[in-house]
């Protein structure tokens, strides 16, 4: 198991390095004007590539049912470890990732950004959240993975893969970190801490409540982080 994990990590690292090197060579040769921008945003581009490659790998394992035994063991461990008395806390965390909370929040913050003439931030946040919701719908229908049926849980619409709550919350939180860092650079650490706490709370809640497999949640985090990064890089490149 450990040897296979090391092999997978090494393989993914090589893929990311190759893609990044190829992209750098292409931009320097064909798009020299973008080469300087890519160098300036190298960390964001590398992180986006890592998230894309890792997300694809985990998603492939989940779709091909190769992650089934690990998914099962993790959920059984969580169910045996987390006291039922804490379920109310995790149910509250899940509610913060619902459309009833996220949609009004998106409208309020989006309008506030527009009122403050921060069109880049309004566009980044809106496209990230709406795009994330569309990806959730498409993947659920396309993959059709059954939800866990290990203990009695609340019914939720749709299939298991990916976790809609986790993906959209991650996209929302990541986009907000980028937006706040552009407006108030000194807020980076605080905004990242809040975003991390929110994402972990919602992701953990989906597992504790038994309505998603761990790989559903991991892929959702990868996609949710990738979207705002990729959209932000694209928007910045158009203005570079």
How would the blueprint of this fold be written?
Layout: H1 2-30, H2 32-40, H3 42-63, H4 68-81, H5 87-95, H6 99-115, H7 119-143, H8 164-183, H9 188-208, H10 214-238
Helix pairs in contact: 1-2, 1-3, 3-10, 5-9, 6-7, 7-8, 7-10, 8-9, 8-10, 9-10
Considering DSSP H and I runs of 4 or more, what fraction of the residues is helical?
over 70%
Sum up the overall morphology in one term.
globular
Helix-strand pattern: HHHHHHHHHH
Sheet bearing the most strands, described? none
* Count of separate structural domains: 1
What structural category characterises the helix and strand content? mainly alpha
Calculate the mean pLDDT score and round it.
84
Q: Please tell me how large the radius of gyration is.
A: 19 Å
Q: Roughly what fraction of the amino acids lie in strands?
A: under 5%
Give the termini separation. 46 Å
Count of helix runs: 10
Residue windows where pLDDT falls under 50 for at least 5 positions: none
Give the strand tally.
0
């Amino acid at each position: 198991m450990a040897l296979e994990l090391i092999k997978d990590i090494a393989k993914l690292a090589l893929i990311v390095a190759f893609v990044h090197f190829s992209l750098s060579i292409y931009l320097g040769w064909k798009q020299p004007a973008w080469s300087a921008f890519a160098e300036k945003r190298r960390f964001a581009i590398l992180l986006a590539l890592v998230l894309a490659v890792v997300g694809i790998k985990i998603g492939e394992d989940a779709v091909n049912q190769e992650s089934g035994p690990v998914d099962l063991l993790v959920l059984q461990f969580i169910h045996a470890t987390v006291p039922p008395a804490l379920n109310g806390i995790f149910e509250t965390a899940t509610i913060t990732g619902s459309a009833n909370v996220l949609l009004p929040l998106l409208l309020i913050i989006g309008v506030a950004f527009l009122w403050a003439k921060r069109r880049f931030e309004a566009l980044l946040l809106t496209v990230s959240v709406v795009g994330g919701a569309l990806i959730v719908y498409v993947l659920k229908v396309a993959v059709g993975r059954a939800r866990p049926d290990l203990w009695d849980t609340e019914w939720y619409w749709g299939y298991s893969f990916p976790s809609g709550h986790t993906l959209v919350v991650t996209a929302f939180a990541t986009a907000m970190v980028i937006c706040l860092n552009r407006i108030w650079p000194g807020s980076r650490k605080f905004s990242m801490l809040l975003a991390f706490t929110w994402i972990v709370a919602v992701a953990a809640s989906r597992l504790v409540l038994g309505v998603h497999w761990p790989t559903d949640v991991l892929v959702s985090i990868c996609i949710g982080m990738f979207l705002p990064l990729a959209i932000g890089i694209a928007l910045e490149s158009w203005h570079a």
